[in-house]
Write the structure tokens for this entry.
Amino acid sequence: MQLTAEFETVHLDADSSSIITIDQTKLPNQLLLLRLKTAQEVWQAIRSLQVRGAPAIGITAAYGLYLAAAASKAEHFSDFYAEFQTAKTYLATARPTAVNLCWALDRMEATLLQHQGKPLAQLKQQLLLQAECIQQEDIQICRRIGEYGLTCLQNGFGLLTHCNAGRLATVKYGTALAPIYLGWEQGYRFRVFADETRPLLQGARLTAYELQAAGIQPTLICDNMVSSVMQKGWIQAVLVGADRIAANGDTVNKIGTAGISILARYYKIPFYVCAPLSTFDRMAADGKEITIEERAAEEVTEMWYEKRMAPPGIDVYNPAFDLTEQQNITAIITEQGIARPPFTASIAALFQQKQAEAAKW
């Protein structure tokens, strides 16, 4: 099997009994599909990074919550709802920094409560429809992010990206890679540089893999080479994704993003964050209010090596994300439009615009 443009990274199988997704820990050497049938399997897949990327995590969690509900033997709504809340709370602990996870789970609960009073079989069907809706919306949202993002780019630009915010992190197109894919479809030709992204190598294993599979040949660089390629004038814009964005524009993304933003500001290179509105946490006034997930030391000392590459017993600090401060961000590109400084006002305006459009329907 090959990764084709038609393949959707996360989807439900034909009889709606299991989630089909790519095991991203096996890439690029093996394209292996996972079949997830229980909330426990979904939790483990998200936690172990078999499923990763904020939008893909949210979609997988939504389907996981549906599968948990579909398996319920409860005969009364009160018992059904109690089981539903237990599964929802459990799934929310898989990756606490990724706001799309809780966003999708909350949306599933809102659907359930909206239809309470209906027979349980109908409630389960409504949950399935909502999960499918979240998946299809993601495709449309990512395409719109790509369209807005492309207005910031020119043919021939050198583009730097970090981690993986492409189709493997979503269902199709991606967020930060969406402008690249759409531009390529329209005849734009970019020179793409992909950071390897230590310690989990999402750039080397995933971004390089999916771009190459799409016929876009990227140049892979080590994380500490960013300043070098910027200094040479090879980069005209930086495109990154996000795992959580505060109300003032502060952005939490994969570890290493903050340093790139500082370098981009020094070299006067536009730094763009590409993310759907579902990634915004407007309850967090700034990035200091966002909890950063820390992961196992073995990811730094042992993973990817044939032999351990650090002394036994060494102390390791391994945060999964860092905070890119809003003053280092040129713009935040969403499906609703582009937010520019001052971000507190422009972000609020995007949400107001979305609410106004929704009210018309």
Notes: The first helix runs from residue 39 to 47.
